[in-house]
Amino acid sequence: MISAMGYNIVTPFLIIVFIPLFSTIFRWVQKKAILRKDLYKYALGPEFDLAGKYASALNTIFTTMTFCSGLPIILLFSSLALLVQYWLDKILLLTWYRKPAVMGPAIHLSLIRTLPFCVLIHSMFAVWAYGSDDIFACVSFFPTFS
After folding, report:
1. Based on the structure, what is the number of domains in the chain?
2. What is the 3-class SS of 97-136, one letter each residue?
């Protein structure tokens, strides 16, 4: 049985992964092309938002690393979310999106510079989670003699 906390943490991963797919399908069903140029414009699809995809992946990684000490099942859900997001982006980039603009290494370097903060946040949350008696109650298996 999934607790309310687990449900509230896992639900955003599902939303992050599947909303872009549903919005693309909705736009595809909603549009009607009358002329050939309209059909060509529609067939190009939207421009690939590389910065948005990086932000989504970074959000998933930071959320996972923050809460995985107290809720280890989130590692499975986030790895599945990242895997589905990767394959959907790959398929949609090859078939639907327009060719993305050429970007320099700045976005990659900013991602690499922010990952050490992820380790710091994970460590602080792990110390709090493992040190709290409310989360992990101390159960003694041996009787105490007084």
Report:
1. 1
2. CECCCCCCCHHHHHHHHHHHHHHHHHHHHHHHHHHCCCCC
Angle at 28 between CA 24 and CA 34, to 5 degrees: 150
Beta-bridge mates of residue 98: 47
Asked, for residue 136, whether it belongs to a domain, the answer is no
Residue 139 lies in a domain: no
The pTM score is: 0.64
Q: Which of 77, 101, 86 is nearest to 13 (CA)?
A: 77
Q: How far is CA 8 from the centre of its chain?
A: 14
Angle at Cα 91 formed by Cα 59 and Cα 26, nearest 5°? Answer: 80
| 3-class DSSP assignment, residue 96 | coil
Q: What is the pLDDT of residues 4-48, one digit of tens each?
A: 666 666 677 666 666 666 666 666 655 555 566 665 666 677 788
Rounded CA-CA distance 90/122 in Å is: 29
141 inside domain = no
